[in-house]
Design brief:
Layout: E1 3-5, H1 10-18, E2 21-26, E3 36-41, E4 45-49, E5 52-58, H2 64-72, E6 74-80, E7 88-98, H3 105-109, E8 118-132, H4 148-154, H5 158-169
Antiparallel strand pairs: 1-8, 2-3, 2-6, 4-5, 5-8, 6-7, 7-8
């Protein structure tokens, strides 16, 4: 049976810490716009408070989440148990992309291991916390994290990474503004 929580409890926080990946979903306001759902992994998620989370946003081939957050701030983070007892946890809230020029960027940088691919942090004020059974979620065995993005970034200069972000991060696939200079 699904349950709603007032806060991210210590037990939920412990369970979140055991998960190897999570999913982020956002959507534009336009009915014709595209919903975005992105998998995330690595050491990229942190609980800042009972209703406050942040995740590290890596350089990628699009900037849908950033564009949607700029437009309407709506976001949901979903964790699924792929091992152990079944469970799905959703954290709904209002988010903000914290870019390098933001005053909180240095503080949030301290929450995570250094990654050359760090583009921003997504900060979320959580307003709804629910779990559900996850009985139909298959069991998977975690093998290891992928280091392809890290290796790609190590081969690039800071300017080459900024150029990539300029090319792939200015607007969403629906033409919504995403990243501003500097990249």
């Amino acid at each position: 049976m699904a349950k709603q929580y007032e806060t991210i409890t210590p037990k939920l926080a412990e369970w979140i810490g055991q998960q190897q990946m999570f999913f982020v979903a956002t959507a534009p306001l336009s009915a014709e716009g595209h919903v975005n759902c992105s998998p995330k992994g690595g050491d990229s998620f942190s609980i800042l408070g009972p209703r406050e989370i942040v995740y590290l946003d890596y350089t990628g081939s699009g900037a849908e989440t950033i564009a949607h957050l700029r437009e309407n701030r709506r976001i949901v983070i979903m964790f699924c148990a792929f091992s152990g007892p079944p469970k799905i946890l959703r954290l709904h809230g209002l988010g903000e992309a914290i870019m390098e020029e933001h005053p909180r960027f240095p503080e949030l940088t301290e929450q995570f291991p250094r990654h050359a691919g760090t583009r921003s942090f997504v900060y979320v004020q959580v307003d709804r916390i629910t779990d559900s059974c996850g009985y139909a979620v298959p069991l998977y065995e975690f093998k290891q994290p992928r280091d392809i993005l890290d290796k790609w970034c190590e081969r690039k200069s800071d300017e080459e990474i900024r150029a990539f972000r300029r090319k792939h991060g200015r607007v969403s696939i629906d033409g919504l503004p995403a990243m501003n200079e500097p990249f």
